[in-house]
Every structure is written in C-alpha cells, then in structure tokens.
Design brief:
Radius of gyration: 20 Å
Helix content: under 10%
Number of helices: 0
Mean pLDDT: 87
CATH topology of the largest domain: SH3 type barrels
Strand order of the largest sheet: 1-6-2-3-4-5
Shape: flat
CATH architecture of the largest domain: Roll
Structural class: mainly beta
Distance between the termini: 43 Å
CATH class of the largest domain: Mainly Beta
Number of domains: 3
Largest sheet: 6 strands, antiparallel
Oligomer: single chain
C-alpha cells in the first residue's frame, strides 16, 4: 500500500481491480476543510483517462509492473509481434492495445513491454525516436529561422509540425510524449 501523499508522475497503482498510471496530481490544502489530492489517472488496460480525488493520507495499492526489453519485429494482419532480446520468446499485441504507440514504432526498434503478473499491458516507448519525413511541402529559400511551422507526414503515418527548412527524407528526432518536433537527427 502507498499513501496518495507519495504520488509521483508515472507511478502505477491498483484501484478497484484496475491498473492506473498517475499522469498528473496536485496536493490541495483549502483554507477550510481537509486537504486532498486531485489526480489524473490513465487506465493501463483501456487507455481511458479519469480524474479522481483522494483524501490526504488515503492508501491505495501499488502495482508492481515489470519491464521486459523486447524488439518489435513485424505486423501481421493486425497483430504486432515483439521478441524478447534475451530468450527469443515472442508475444503478439493487437492494435487496440498499442494504438498510440503505433505512431512511433518501426521494425527492429527496441522497446520495454510492460507486464503485470503474466498479463501484457502495453509498450513503454523511449522519450524520443528518430523518424524519416515521408512527405512535406518543400522549404522555400529564406524560410529558415522565422519561427513558423508546416505539417509533415512521418514514415509511421504520424503528422508532426516541423520548421520550414525540413524537407522530405530528412531524419528527425520526435518527442513520444506529445508528438512534437525536437530537432534533426
């Protein structure tokens, strides 16, 4: 058990049989009344985000999530196959389990697979990934550091707003938490 006063972003907890990840939290001490913790939780099984308020000091169960380093191999009729890099065991995840992560997954990419007991919950991506620009409007001479942006379609189908100087086939570093452009690779 863990106190809600010890919440941290990314902490995984168990409430009413569900697995939840703390996305955001705020300790509130009103002038009148008892203190409480307002939190935003993401269900690891369904992906739904819910806001929940706890009384200060309330206890919740801590879920122990294991990370297994795996390599994404290929997609076959809606099933995404991952292989354990140590024992070569393979698992399949369906598209609904990793809908968001598909925007960043490339073949042969190493990721962490989140496991709760024997259940596969999802994929933990690195903070940034390198993706190739598949198509974007060509850059115009003079449009370099003006601060504007244009849409670019990446090799995975993800749309990213990029600076004007980025062209097709450029390799870019993209933030996986919000899908934003970081820099050229």
């Amino acid at each position: 058990m863990i106190s809600v006063n010890d919440f941290k972003t990314g902490l995984t907890i168990e409430i009413d049989g569900g697995l939840w990840k703390v996305v955001d939290f705020q300790h509130v001490k009103p002038g009148k009344g008892a203190a409480f913790v307002r939190s935003k939780l993401k269900n690891l099984r369904t992906g739904a985000v819910q806001e929940k308020t706890f009384r200060a000091g309330e206890k919740v169960g801590k879920a122990h999530i294991a990370n297994r380093k795996m390599q994404f191999l290929y997609e076959s009729s809606g099933a995404y196959v991952f292989m354990d890099t140590e024992n070569y065991e393979q698992i399949e995840l369906n598209a609904s389990q990793i809908e968001y992560e598909l925007n960043y997954l490339k073949e042969n990419m190493e990721v962490n697979i989140l496991m709760y007991e024997s259940e596969t919950i999802g994929v933990d991506l690195p903070n940034t990934v390198i993706l190739r620009v598949e198509e974007t409007e060509p850059g115009i001479k003079g449009d370099t550091a003006s601060g504007g942006s244009k849409p670019a379609k990446m090799e995975t189908g993800l749309m990213v707003n990029v600076p004007f100087f980025v062209n097709a086939d450029d390799m870019l570093i993209v933030n996986t938490t919000d899908g934003s452009y970081v820099s050229r690779a």
